[in-house]
Amino acid sequence: MKNTLLFLLSACAATVATAQTPTVSTPAATRFYVQPSLVLAIPGSDFDTAMGLGAAVGVSFKSRHSVELEYVQFETEPDAGYAPFDIDFTHILVTYKYRIPFTPKFSSYVGGSIGRVSQKISASQGFYIIGDDTDDSISVGLVGGVQYQFEDNIVFDGGLKVLGQDDTRFTTSGSVLLVQASVKFQF
């Protein structure tokens, strides 16, 4: 995960260093948006890679800034063969993004997230759930990605989030890599 974090930081620095202002000015209007996403979660070496879903609501302002509230959920299990339990990760995050335009339609962004991660463990035996418990902790991280504007109100977004989290009763502290593909609907 350290290599992933270093790569993300390097990519963000290179993006900021090489960004150019687009030839067509973009309006500085405030726009609200909703953004559903598919998520590939890599929760460290102790757990299996998982697929999940996310959804964000946000506001873009001054043509380059945005703030959003995001919900991301995925379920995984320990990476130790058969395990009698699953862990459900639910992130609630506030994310700030700074957009760096390359052309009027193509841009990248960098930013940060802070929020809460809830982990629910469900123990089972065969088809029977024999118990579950929940614990949560703080989650903080970096974000980066690219955007392509199809129409005035539809934007494709591909991004990475590297989130660090404190330990809980079920997991030790560490990081989670989220790879997201989403469509942003602006209004």
From TrEMBL:
Signal peptide stretch: 1-19
This protein's record includes keyword Transmembrane helix: no
Domain Outer membrane protein beta-barrel as annotated: residue spans: 9-161
UniProt entry keywords in alphabetical sequence: Signal
Gene3D superfamilies in the record: 2.40.160.20
Signal among keywords: yes
Pfam families: OMP_b-brl (PF13505)
InterPro entries cross-referenced by the UniProt entry: Beta-barrel_OMP, OMP/PagP_B-barrel
Lineage top rank: taxon: Bacteria
Protein name: Outer membrane protein beta-barrel domain-containing protein
Native species: Nibricoccus aquaticus
Lineage summary: Bacteria, Pseudomonadati, Verrucomicrobiota, Opitutia, Opitutales
